[in-house]
Specification:
Elements (H helix, E strand, L loop, with lengths): L13 E7 L5 H12 L4 E3 L8 E8 L6 H4 L4 E9 L1 E3 L8 E4 L6 H9 L3 E5 L8 E2 L2 E2 H6 L9 E14 L2 E8 L5 H12 L3 E11 L2 E2 L4 E2 H8 L9 E2 L9 E3 L2 H8 L4 E2 L7 E5 L5 E8 L4 E7 L3
Parallel strand pairs: 1-14, 3-12, 16-18
Antiparallel strand pairs: 1-3, 1-15, 2-3, 4-11, 4-12, 5-6, 7-10, 8-9, 10-11, 12-13, 17-20, 18-19, 19-20
Length: 302
């Protein structure tokens, strides 16, 4: 994106889109950013497993209040799935629990993929961070306890086979937030009858941010030395850049920050971003058709 900006440290608020390297947890990446920017208020908007790489969206400063909205947006992945091996963790780090011959053609694989497109029920992997009676599921699984997780409704928008090299296949996945790609790989293997697990994962898109927007973590860390990391900061308003927006006058900005409504003759959308004339995010607002006004739903920078 071209709209990087250079605020002062005290007003720093926005988005850092990181190309997370394999081997780090998402929390470790956030900690590196907190240490390097000296801004403690930072958080990511969607966990990537340590063995996964790719787009990790990190919100800085007051922009962290956007997390619930940014986290809920769709994701896109390139997943490498290995057929013929089932593991207890549903990925290549786990213990192999079953092996089978792979007598699957590319056409059969693609036919199986079609069964996972749309709104479906998915059971998370037993080795996951989900809480069960106050405990993490992976802690229970590691101690040999039976883990029963409730299925969740997810949406898989598309599944496309982009590389077929049996027993491995690479699949492009566009899905809703909350989708476990490990479970998708496992369930696909069960449907094919040979078992499968996830051996590689790269997130290529999170919300509106893609790998083109992402900065390698190594390069960001290098920029901390001369305090030039601001060049990679994207304005907070862009975190929800696909949402419609209304532009506020200086007087309206002050009014909205105090919880007041603003009048508009027509609706730009039911829920919109309210931004200043300089493009800074002020609030999310909802349209009231009865009064033809936008009322603040969430004010970010009061």
């Amino acid at each position: 994106m071209e709209n990087r900006f250079n605020p002062s440290r005290n007003s720093a608020s926005g988005v850092l889109v990181i190309d997370k390297p394999i081997g780090m947890t998402s929390h470790q990446v956030v900690q590196v950013i907190r240490n390097g920017t000296r801004i403690k208020r930072a958080g990511h908007t969607g966990t990537l497993d340590p063995r996964a790489s790719g787009v990790l969206v990190v919100l800085i400063g007051p922009a962290v209040r956007l997390s619930e909205y940014v986290s809920a947006e769709d994701k896109r992945y390139q997943a490498t799935i290995k057929l013929g091996e089932r593991t207890d963790t549903y990925d290549g780090d786990g213990t192999i629990t079953r092996t089978a011959e792979v007598n699957v053609t590319a056409d059969q694989f693609e036919d199986a993929l079609k069964g996972f497109i749309g709104e479906i029920e998915q059971v998370p992997p037993p080795y996951s961070a989900i809480h069960v009676n106050g405990r993490r599921a992976y802690d229970m699984a590691r101690q040999g306890e039976e883990v029963e997780l409730e299925p969740r409704i997810i949406t898989v928008h598309s599944l496309e086979l982009i590389e077929w090299n049996p027993p491995e296949a690479v699949v492009d996945i566009h899905c809703s937030s909350g989708t476990y790609v490990r479970s998708l790989a496992h369930d696909l293997g069960e449907k094919l009858g040979c078992g499968a697990n996830l051996t590689g994962l790269r997130r290529t898109k999170s919300g509106r941010f893609t790998l083109k927007d992402a900065i390698p973590l190594r390069r960001l860390v290098e920029s901390f030395d001369n305090n030039s990391w601001y060049q990679f900061l994207i304005p907070a308003a862009e975190a929800l850049g696909d949402w419609p927006a209304i532009t506020l006058t200086n007087e309206e900005v002050d009014a909205v920050r105090h919880g007041h409504r603003v009048a508009r003759e027509s609706s730009a959308g039911q829920t919109v971003r309210a931004i200043t004339e300089q493009g800074e995010l002020v609030a999310l607002m909802e349209f009231d058709a009865e009064t033809s006004e936008y009322q603040p739903k969430k004010v970010f920078f009061a």
